[in-house]
Amino acid sequence: PENEERIKAFSTIMKLEPFQRGMKELAPTVWITALRKVQNPNRAGLDIVSHDGNFNSLKVSPLFYWSDAEMEAYLKQHKLPNEWDYFDPAKADDKRECGLHAAWGGQAVASA
User: Fold this and answer.
1) Contacts of residue 103, Cβ cutoff 8 Å, sequence gap at least 6
2) Hey, how many other C-beta atoms are within 10 angstroms of the C-beta on 105?
3) CA distance readout (Å), 12 to 19, 40, 48, 49, 75
4) Tens digits of per-residue pLDDT, 25-49?
5) What's the pTM?
6) What is the pLDDT of residue 61?
7) Measured between alpha carbons, how far is 11 from 38 in angstroms, rounded to an integer?
8) 50 CB contacts (<8 Å, ≥6 apart)?
9) How far, in whole angstroms, is CA 72 from its chain's centroid?
10) What confidence category does residue 110 fall into, taking pLDDT thresholds of 50, 70 and 90?
11) Which one, of 25, 26, 20, lies nearest residue 55 by Cα?
């Protein structure tokens, strides 16, 4: 729990605040993301198109139903970097959400 709070604090400073600032300044009505269902239980409950309350925008996830194997094949075919090749303590994993796609993410920045 203590480590989780430290990760959330780091995520707020390094990811959530800059992203929220950009979304506020640009005010997009549509947000396209690479969010996928298989990434964690929180994301599995979302869908390809959803409303994001934190940023008041329509969130579109065109890769939502891609498996890990499909994603890896696409990255390899197009010679793109894989996000798992570098360390980011704020990155979502199979047990934790990064904050961009969770209600606590908007609240974390507001209270920081």
Assistant:
1) 53, 54
2) 23
3) 10, 20, 25, 25, 28
4) 999 999 999 889 988 887 888 889 9
5) 0.72
6) 95
7) 21
8) 58, 59, 61
9) 18
10) low
11) 20
The answer to whether 36 and 63 have CB atoms below 8 angstroms apart is yes
For residue 17, what are the contacts with CB-CB under 8 A and spacing of at least 6? Answer: 109, 112
pLDDT band (50, 70, 90) for residue 99: low
Q: 59 burial class (0-12, 13-18, 19+ CB within 10 angstroms)? A: buried
Predicted confidence at residue 102, as pLDDT, reads 64
Distance set, CA 76 to CA 47, 70, 96 (Å): 26, 10, 26
Which residues are paired to 52 by β-bridges?
57
